[in-house]
Design goal:
By secondary structure, the chain is mostly beta strands. It has 1 helix and 8 strands; from the N terminus they run ββββαββββ.
């Protein structure tokens, strides 16, 4: 197991708000990264993908949204789906759903159902609606949990085989013409 880590994501690394390009989760802030991600006008929905390089266990999350009702209100999480779009997300049940408060300082942590967030290699977050604005703005997503040292890679194995006994007649002793008695 790796150390407990508090990773955070600057969501603005997505080219467009409705893009399914993965958001990166750096452990240190990147000053060159845009400071927020917004949905399109007249559409509060937003779909974010957060891939991990090794499986993680997520204990809680923190979300900072925009002011004037642009902060997300309903957040749904989907775990370990390689691809997901809005229609897939609406058709599948979420692993967990939260009703978020407007939090401008990031002091509210929303706990996960920890048993459902084990061995997570990709996290999808769907913002279903916001607090009344015509679009949604997110400036920070914080994830608290534990990372593992396990990496997904191909298995390298050496197989060895050695012939033992007579495979044609296993009861016949090697080198003798007769049949062996069981138990001898």
């Amino acid at each position: 197991m790796g150390p407990t880590a508090r990773a955070w994501t600057r969501c603005g690394e997505l080219a467009r708000a409705h893009s399914t390009q993965p958001a990166r989760a750096p452990l240190t802030p990147d000053p060159r990264a845009p400071q927020s991600v917004e949905s399109e006008e007249d559409d509060p929905q937003l779909l974010l993908s957060i891939p991990f390089t090794c499986p993680v266990k997520i204990r809680s999350l923190t979300v900072i949204g925009g002011g004037d009702g642009m902060a997300p209100r309903t957040l749904k999480a989907y775990v370990n789906h390689e691809t997901l779009d809005f229609s897939d997300a609406e058709a599948r049940p979420a692993v967990q759903e939260w009703t978020l408060q407007e939090d401008y300082l990031g002091v509210i942590e929303y706990p996960t159902q920890f048993s459902r967030f084990q061995n997570v290699s990709r996290l999808w977050l769907l913002v279903d609606d916001n607090h009344g604005a015509d679009h949604t703005l997110i400036s920070y997503i914080g994830l608290s949990g534990v990372g593992s040292e396990h990496k997904r890679r191909a298995v390298q194995t050496v197989y060895e085989a050695r012939a033992t006994g007579n495979f044609i007649d296993p009861l016949k002793e090697p080198g003798k013409g007769g049949t062996a008695e069981p138990g001898m």
